[in-house]
Amino acid sequence: LQAESAEAQEMWRGFILTMAEMKVPADLVLLPGHIFQLSEALREERDRRTTLGPTEPPVPLMPSCFFKVSRGEAEQLLERNAGSGNIVLRPGGHGHGISVTTCQMLNGTALFKHYKVVSVGQGYQIDVDTP
């Protein structure tokens, strides 16, 4: 995800923290309209979570700007657009949830890593080989 401006970066930071903590952070440097948008997104997420059955895990909220790409497509995307970032948040290949693909350049060679994001209680955990 590449933010076009410092304001967009702060908005994404606010969105991620709001959904992770289920409250709008007080330290955001945003205009009142943006704070209102975050509050509305939080209200919608709370409503969505209350409609889930007791055995259904919360489904990670995937903003509409994300494209559904496979593991291979994520690698190609990162390699072709190396100057635009080194991480892709994508739908999980494990049947539900999301996955993270990272790209690190080592001696001119792209090194890709894939991580599964799983729901744990009220939060999320990234599964890595070496915790």
From TrEMBL:
SUPFAM superfamilies: SH2 domain (SSF55550). InterPro entries: PH-like_dom_sf (IPR011993), SH2_dom_sf (IPR036860), STAP1/STAP2 (IPR039111). GO terms for molecular function: signaling adaptor activity. This is STAP2 protein. It comes from Chauna torquata. The lineage of its organism: Eukaryota, Metazoa, Chordata, Craniata, Vertebrata. The gene is Stap2.
